[in-house]
Amino acid sequence: MPIVMHGLTEAKGFGHHGLLACLVAAACVYGAFAAHGQSNEVSMNTRVAVVIPALNEAATIQKVVSGCLAALGEPPYNAMVIVVDDGSSDDTALRGQESGAQVIGHRTNLGVGRALRTGLDHALASGADIIVNIDADGQFNPGDIPALIAPLVDGQADFASASRFKDPALVPQMPWVKLLGNHLMSRIVSAIVGHKFYDVSCGFRAYNREAALRLNLWGEYTYTQESFLDLCIKGMRIKEVPLRIRGEREHGKSRVASNLFKYAFKTLKIILHTYRAFWPMHFFGWLSLFLLMPGVLLVGFLLTHRLITGSFSPHIWAGFAGGGLFAFGSIILVTGLLGETVKRIRLNQESLLYYERKRQYE
Question: Are residues 53 and 135 in the same domain?
């Protein structure tokens, strides 16, 4: 089986498919997110694609691929495994291919987020009904895939993610710093979307075809938290599936979370970018309030002093400081209002992109 090499660029827009497709999609724009609450139950002989982003995982990739094929080797599943070799310098691609996987190669390391997008696109083009993504390091048990995809097969969810922390009895052994970081990320994402999630950082998850078509990821460093945010804003039904998961890698160190400070910085950057894009009034509103409130208090203090003493002196500084804070706060508030307009435009564009992808892959 040949190894497919992908270039360094990836189309984000609609390509050259013509004006007619855009007009048809535009006519349907207001129904783009109507899938919320609808049943997407899949039938027998379900086509399941397992996407495995991999970078220098020659020591474990064969075990993971073989485990995936064994877990999905009987009806009602029709399985395929896709290894996305993200610029490995070892035998990851060769060993994955020898184990029965289709291998797609990036010529250089583009990041796990980009590798997942490549795998999702290939799985959609292959006609998959359900797409599972699992890490190549052996930290997750491929035998748990049927349990993970069960809510999708039954039509109860559009997106299922393994949860290490929902069931206290299944919490894995890991350094307290990582445990704290995972809980913090879950709290941030839960606060943004208004729904309690226990584990938003686990890399073992499953998408039905509808969720995969709607998913639009921009982060290249990681995809885990952004997926929750993106699918929540689009009304997808999300379910956490408690599973027993290894707390540490079997071989080597995580290339994403090996440096916790770097991981925290880049992950928070992705979360804030998504928060700003989809919840602009929340994002800019709080910043505006942080400046407007002290601005109003300072100006109020100066005016009160003027009424009592008949003079602005010696607190003229309060007027300049308060006026400056009020002006900056107002500018940020207007930015939030403009952001709401941009958000509506973006949602319309994502709707068009969904219909174009659906047309392309179906």
Answer: yes
